[in-house]
Amino acid sequence: GAGVSQSPSNKVTEKGKDVELRCDPISGHTALYWYRQRLGQGLEFLIYFQGNSAPDKSGLPSDRFSAERTGESVSTLTIQRTQQEDSAVYLCASSPSALRDIRANYGYTFGSGTRLTVV
Amino acid sequence: KQEVTQIPAALSVPEGENLVLNCSFTDSAIYNLQWFRQDPGKGLTSLLLIQSSQREQTSGRLNASLDKSSGRSTLYIAASQPGDSATYLCAVLIFPNAGNNRKLIWGLGTSLAVNP
Questions:
Q1: Are the beta carbons of B42 and A112 separated by less than 8 Å?
Q2: Does residue A104 have a pLDDT over 70?
Q3: Which of A19, A97, B5, B22 could join A104 via S-S bond, C-beta 3.0 to 4.6 A?
């Protein structure tokens, strides 16, 4: 598509339920990031996918968080047994080029985010 | 360890002023630097990207400069308008090791209010 698409745009869930957030990157973008942003705070890195390589999961805050991406397609971020502290905006970004090439455009394009509220 | 700092944290100016937002980074080994805008409750919009080999980029009333050796970038906004009110974030792209894995290192942003 023309941009990074995230769904749903808003999600209200009860504490303890599982939620699944979706990110549809720009076609052909090999790199995909998930970030979390709590109200009034900066971006917190969660997970990074690079083509078919093993993802960098170093930012996932607990084992309740997991993410998948098949190849260069859609990614889903799953939060199990949601807690109130999980309430935040979850942002996805994608970027072209898998190569370590200084001439390549590694600019990131962000989606509009999913606002998750756990009540 | 790469760290990105943005100064000031908040800025309030009257409409029409020219203004400068600052971003500094501790390690000059960056691949690019990108400026983003975030409106309250919304996602991020990319404004300008400067490759490490470039000195500046311009888009409309925005001009971003990059001085890699001194670890600084500035975002210049000409003739500011109330619609420019937002949080402005800068991020540098690095490759922390010999592989292809990359990292975006973020500043905390400058919150800009342009008053009519």
A1: yes
A2: no
A3: A97
